[in-house]
Structure formats: structure tokens, C-alpha cells
Amino acid sequence: MSQTVQNKNRPLGSDLSSDQLEQAISKADIRVLLMTLYHLTADQRWLSPPYCPKLDRKLIANEEAGLAPHLIEEIQRAAVDALSSGSSRPEITDPGNTQMQKMMSHCLGENVPEEYAPMMREEMGFSSRYQNASSSKNPAAFFTEPVLIVGAGASGIALAAGLQKSGIPFIILEKNSEAGGTWFNNIYPGCGVDTPSHAYSFSFGQRHNWSRYFSPQREIQDYLVRKTDELKIRPHIHFDTKVTSMDWLETKQLWSIKAVSGGTEKQFLATAVVSAIGQLNAPSVPSIPGREQFSGKIFHSAEWPENLDLTGKSVSVIGTGASAMQIVPTIAPDVKALNIYQRSAQWARPVPRYHDPIEEEAQWLLDTIPFYAAWFRFTMLWRYGDGLLPTLRKDPDWPHPEISVNRHNDKHRQELTEHIRNELNGDEELIKKCLPTYPPYGKRILLDNGWYGALRRDHVTLISDPVQEISPSGIMTADGKSRPADIIVFATGFHVTQMAARLNVTGRDALKLQDAWAPDNPRAYLGITVPSFPNFFCMQGPNTGLGHGGSAIFQAECQARYIIDCLQQMADEQIMSVDVKPSVHDAYISDVDEAHENLIWTHQGMSTYYRNSSNRVVSVMPWRLVDYWQMTRRANLSNYRLTR
Question: How far is CA 238 from CA 149, 151, 306, 337, 531, in A?
């Protein structure tokens, strides 16, 4: 008879028989289970040979970690014993920086530099991200007007959570009827995250029961909505409220914000304003002649009509970027004909197990076993983190700069080329259309979740001739061919360079942000603050996008901490406004540009939305995640002009 596991001091979430516990543990990622064992027991043998996981760079690594079956069985048995023992508390909660570095390196099978230890301790909840959040004074007494956040997406929620913890009053203006930001707007078929779900989540109150390793839009939207309720942020949100202007009042040292809600103009005063609208917010639709005369449905992918039935329809998709690569494989089985209009070929990285569900036993481990979810999150953050960036640096002596930028990059090109050839099964005409002519990772990293398989279908056609005109019944290309369409989808990206300037912001001396950034050159110190715009902050601002991997939510939390630290110091020192010094701002921008000159995104002969019309990189950052984390850890007010 199996014995039921009862642990009153540290409940496992539900009573399990020993057989059930063993079954759940058998589904564990061994590298993660080893770290959990060490927390529970403090037994150094779990960080020593022969229990050494092998290096595995796949985004979703093999759970057996390269260990022999008898070692796996021994680790699993030890975990069952430890979890059944009734121990009142783990032996180790926060390992500290030195031991953390040792644990990370052992877990991954590679050396992890010690500089990552404090960052990952925060990300995994072992130490506080807001260690400077407590003030010697009551911040609510200082902030006679609240901090106003524009946008209730992931960034706005991250900032609101920190402000709530710090006792700083705030409100959020959200143009939509619900929280979620881009995940509320984008409901197109196949929409989902291209960062592993356990990395694309907040470090606080982490959700562990994602249905898949890469979750669909609906789950992410539900997650963000749930966070607004769990964190008690919802009462601070004004939904269906669109900002029309923001003006700095120098005499009052306050912002005046105008917004429209239900056809009525409203006015707000704020001590500080924060743009949390991000970069991928304003759909970009190309000006193609005849667009207005099309008789069928025509729309941008970010404006997908609800309950649209594609069954038996002839659908045309213009664009082959990230959205198209999710839409096409999803709708291909249902439509009558699918024409895809490509401006340039894209590199797409294969991700085995992209669609794999997370099994029930694995969900139980993530929800219940102490420290398991934290270390699982670490493995995902690391594999999709800084490892790629060194391979994206230009080698000035590399003999083939037209196709790659260094030896590692060329190896990636060969691997991705082989993947394309294998997927397209010898169709040389299609292979020629699909093989890019620029170095891999020179544009946004795309994931192959069935894209090439969809292109092989008989009723799917990839068209590389430029679109010339839209007629009432279809699309004509430059070669004179006309193809019928019932529905046209623009998967053509967003107006990335506008960012916060779309909010009609006017700062000190009547300077408009759109003029400061004209014509399409957004710049901000740390991607957060702009000279002559006091108490104005950006989240996901210029040069903070992630071109080499990582999580936008990680970026949001770094920026939230920096902004809150600024505000906290203002309250402590009775500072009415902070305005970044032009010299500090300009020196930072110079550093950004200089760093980018050595990276793939400034490669000649390549177009990407990362760059503006002058070919300056304005979207992504050149730094490692750990560099940006360190830069935003504490606000140095000596970099700012202060009004006391």
C-alpha cells in the first residue's frame, strides 16, 4: 500500500501518495531538481561530481541533463525523500552571491560569471529588487499629485507594482477597455510569445502553470489581467481613456495631462509622467495604391477582427516578419488559398518542442516544490539571455562580411541555411526565395513554428515580386500578375521610431518631444529620460529593445526600479523636478552609437526596423542584460538638473 505524503510544516499543495510523488519527480528537469535538493538539504554533493549536468544550449533542454540513468534515479529518490521528510524549512533560502555563482555554473554545465549572481538572485526572488524602496520620509506626503502612467500593459503593471510597494501614489490611463497592452490588441491567429513563458513573466508573483513553453496570446493576456487584480492595481486604472496631450507647467512644477474618455475631455495633474506604451504600438500600413477600393476585408494584423471566419477564403498576407510567421502556419489548414507577399527573406531559428505542452506532473512541480520554479525560470532566462551577443560583434578581419560578421555568425548561417534546405525538401525555387542575403540575427530573431512547412502546402504561394497595386478583387505585383483575394492582411510591423512622441508631449520652454526626436531619431538617457522634459520617464524607450534575446518584462522591471529610485530620492531630498543634463544624455547616446558600430545591426546593405532613415540604430540596445541591470540599479541624481 502506498504511503500518503503529509507535510504540515511545508505543504506540497495537495496530499500525494508516494507513488504519485515519484511519478511527478520522474518528470523533473534534473538540473533544476539538483538545485532544489541543495536548497532543501545544503548537501554539497549535489554540486559535485558525478552529479554534473552537461551543457545544453537548446532553448528547451533535455530534462535528463546528460546524466546516466543510475545517477538520475539516485537524484530523484533523494528528492522524494527530502520532500517526504517533513522538514520545517529549507536549509538554504538565499545562497548569497558566491554560492549562487557556483550553483548557476553547476546547473548549466558552464561557467557563469559572478557578476550575474546578484541579478539572478533578484530575478529568482532570493533578494529584493526594491531594496532601496523604503524612504526615510512619507512619499505620499511629498507627492501632492500622483505619478501618471500611460498604458496598462506589462511595463505599466511592473511600474505600478513597484510604486504600490513604495507608497508612491499613482494612476494609469489606458486607452483600451482592459489591461494587457499589446497582448490585448493583438488577437491574430497564432499570436504568442517568442520568449519562453517562464522568462516572460514578472519576478514577483510568478505564474508557473503556463500550458506551453511558449504561451499563446490568450494566456499572456489573462496573466496580465490577473496581475492587475492580485496586485490591487485595477482601482488605479482609468480604462477607455486616451491621452491627447501632456504639458509641463514650469511654475507649478507639475504635468498637465489631457485625455478623452467616452467623448468627454478630462484633465489630470501629475508630479511625474511615465510613458509605458512601448515601441510596438502604432501599426504601420504601407501606402499602396488602390487600398481604399478593395471590396473585401483589409486590415493590419494588430487590428484583427474578432470572430473572423477564414474557412474557404482566399487570403493574402503582406509581410513576412514575426506576425506573419505566426499567422501563416495557423491559418494555412483552413483557407482556400494563401498568398504571401515578401519584401525580403527572413532567417528563422528552429525551436524543437515549440508547441509542446507542459505536462501535468511538471506543472505540479512548478506550482508546489520549493525553489523548483525559480531555478526553472533561471534556465530559461539564461538560454535566452546574453549568450548570443558576443557572436554578433563584427570581426574587422572576417573575409566574408557580405554574408556574416564573424566565424560564429557564419556557423549560424550554415546551420540556418541547412534548416531551410531540409524544411523545403529540395524545392530549389522556394529555397532561393527563402534564403536571406544578410547575416543571421541582423534583423529581429524569428522562430520557425511551422513557417517553412506551411510554405510547402500546395495552396500556399510565396511571392517575392513587389506589390504594385491593390484592386477591388485582389493584388497586382510589379511583374503584371494579378491574384484574387477575399481578405488582405498587412503584417507590416509598427511605427517604431515614434514611441512616446505619439503622446503629444511638451516639455520645458515649449519644446515638443516629437521635435526633439525629429525626424525619426528618438534618444533618451538609459532609454528612460530626455533633457528638457522634467519628471518625464519612458519605459521600453529608445535603445532598450532586445535584439539578442532576453525578456521585455526583465527590461520593464529594470526601468521601473530606476524610475522609482528617482522618485524616492526626490521625496527624501524634497526635490520638485529632475531633468537629465544634456551633457550626460549626449555622452550616453555617443556610447550607444559607438557600441552599435561594432555590432551586426549596423551592417551595411541591410534594412531593419531597428534603424531610422539615417541608418542609426534607435530600437535595440547594444548592452548585455547584466550591463543594463547594473546601469539602472540606482539613479544617480548628480546626472540631473534639480529643482528643489
Answer: 10, 10, 24, 43, 29
CA distance 536 to 520: 20
pLDDT at 132: 57
CB 141 within 8 A of CB 65: no
Helix (H, G, I), strand (E, B) or coil at 169: coil
Same fold, 139-282+496-643 and 291-354+404-490: yes
Mean pLDDT along residues 412-426:
96
Which residues 6+ apart lie within 8 Å of 394 measured at CB? 401, 405, 406, 598, 599, 600, 603
Look at the block and give the residue holding cell 489573462: 222
- pLDDT classification of 569: cutoffs 50, 70, 90: very high
SS3 48: coil
Angle at alpha carbon of residue 576, lines to 575 and 578, rounded to 5°: 80
Task: Report how far residue 61's alpha carbon sits from residue 56's, in angstroms, rounded to the nearest whole number.
Answer: 6
List the chain domain ranges.
Answer: 4-128+367-386, 139-282+496-643, 291-354+404-490
CATH of domain 291-354+404-490: 3.50.50.60
Q: Are 600 and 548 spatial neighbours (Cβ–Cβ below 8 Å)?
A: no
Amino acid at 318: I
The per-residue DSSP string of 242-309 comes to: EEEEEEEETTTTEEEEEEEETTEEEEEEESEEEE---SS-SB-----TTGGG--SEEEEGGGPPTT--
pLDDT of residue 4: 33
Strands of 453-558, DSSP E: 460-463, 467-471, 474-477, 482-484, 487-490, 505-506, 536-538
CATH class of 139-282+496-643: alpha beta
Contact 342, 433 (CB under 8 A): yes
DSSP per-residue letters across 140-166:
HHH-SS-EEEE--SHHHHHHHHHHHHH
Taking only Cα atoms into account, the Rg of the chain, rounded to an integer number of angstroms, comes to 26
What distance in Å separates the CA atoms of residue 244 and residue 257, rounded to the nearest whole number?
Answer: 8
Report the DSSP beta bridge partners of residue 490: 300, 318
Residue 469 CA to chain centroid, in angstroms? 35
Residue of 539, 567, 576, 628 lying closest to 130 (CA atoms)? 567
Report d(CA 456, CA 29) in Å as an integer. Answer: 35
* H or E element in which residue 451 lies: helix 451-455
Please name the residue that has the C-alpha cell 541547412.
418
Q: β-strands 487-490, 505-506: how paired?
A: unpaired
Confirm if 101 and 382 have CB atoms less than 8 A apart. Answer: no
Cell numbers that stand for 509 in this block = 520652454
* Chain mean pLDDT for the chain: 93
Contact (Cβ atoms closer than 8 angstroms) between residue 274 and residue 537 = yes
Average pLDDT over residues 28-49: 97
- If one counts every other C-beta atom within 10 angstroms of the C-beta of residue 432, the result is 11
CA distances from 306 to 153, 187, 198 (A): 20, 8, 28
Nearest residue to 267 via CA among 276, 277, 257, 255? 257
Tens digit of each residue's pLDDT (9 = 90 or more) over 524-566: 999 999 999 999 999 999 999 999 999 999 999 999 999 999 9
Would you say 373 and 379 are in contact if contact means Cβ atoms under 8 Å apart?
Answer: no
127's CB contacts (< 8 A; 6+ apart) are 94, 118, 121
